[in-house]
Design goal:
The chain has 75 residues and is mainly α. The chain has helices at residues 21-38, 43-66. It is built from two helices and no strands.
């Protein structure tokens, strides 16, 4: 088998993509606000923003589940 495309053990996490809970909460609130603002003019964009907000909410809930010390997210 050719190991040309195998990345197991060769990929490390990108530290610039690791964010903290406060950043995720801020992004979540921005997505929700923007989706609400464009809901009357561009329904497809609004749906896309709500979908992205839903994915961020799930990430926030997963972070809270694994790191519950002094974390407090309000939805």
């Amino acid at each position: 088998m050719n190991s040309h495309f195998c990345k197991v053990g060769k990929v490390s996490p990108n530290p610039s993509k690791i964010t903290n809970l406060k950043d995720l909460e801020h992004k979540y609130s921005n997505f929700i606000e923007e989706a609400y603002n464009v809901a009357q003019t561009d329904r497809s964009l609004s749906d896309t923003l709500f979908h992205e907000a839903k994915k961020l909410k799930q990430k926030i809930l997963n972070l809270e589940k694994y790191d519950s010390k002094d974390l407090n997210a309000a939805f």
